[in-house]
Design brief:
It is built from 2 helices and 3 strands. It starts with 5 loop residues before the first strand and ends in a 6-residue tail after the last helix. The longest helix has 30 residues. It is an alpha+beta fold. The chain has one domain.
Length: 103
């Protein structure tokens, strides 16, 4: 994302969704192009006007097939992003779902 702020949210079965990280300039919003079935699994809510950069995921994956070093480098970058988002989501869930006194 080049400009703006976006709130990542996970839908809930009942009730309001769980808010994830708020992302800002130059943060990566998603990577559904990287992992089958290539579908977005979250919601993104613009908190301010946003300017995004969009990439051709299919073309990037094809290039990674031809250049394994590129594919390895991208996978390391996105694995780190995924790990950070999962950690943040876990903390959010613990904060919002844990009753007082719950360990």
């Amino acid at each position: 994302m080049r400009e703006g702020k976006v709130q990542i949210q996970a839908s809930a079965i009942n009730g309001p969704g769980v808010e994830g990280q708020a992302l800002g300039e130059w943060d990566v919003i998603g990577w559904p192009w990287l992992i089958p079935p290539y579908r977005w699994a979250f919601e993104a809510k613009a908190l301010t006007p946003v300017t995004l950069l969009r990439f051709d995921g299919k073309a990037i994956l094809q290039e990674c097939e031809h250049d394994p070093a590129l594919g390895n480098a991208l996978m390391k970058i996105f694995a780190g992003l995924m790990s950070e988002r999962l950690r943040a989501a876990r903390l959010r869930m613990m904060e919002s779902w844990a009753p007082p006194g719950w360990a």
